[in-house]
Amino acid sequence: MSFDDYTDGAAISTINVAPLVDVMLVLLVIFMVTAPILQQGVELELPKETIAPISGEGEQLVVSIDQEGAVFIGDGNAVEVSALGTRLKAILLSREDKRVFIRADRRVPYGDVMAAMGSIRRSGIEKVGLITEPS
Question: Exposed, middle or buried by CB within 10 Å (0-12, 13-18, 19+), for 101?
Fold first, then answer.
């Protein structure tokens, strides 16, 4: 049997798309793996001021972190980072505005700020903001 027996002498007009699909899937996997890696290495210059003041209803709940890493709720109420989330959750039960703002000294290590934010988020408080001073 020859090739002409199957085609009756006519040219085959179909395209084999299996290799094309294989190449596209490999490219998709490569882009999915490399996209997050490219985003992590971008150097940024963060803004030094806010665009506009945040409007709120009533008194805002502010967590302050001083340069030694001590954490305070409001005006001078010291609290441990491990108990921060549960204390804030209890305070927010009686408030309409469920937002918490973190105000930290610029010399505080980034890890200390993130530990406070993590404690707040683990307690179920979703709306957490950071306060800056205008330059």
Answer: middle
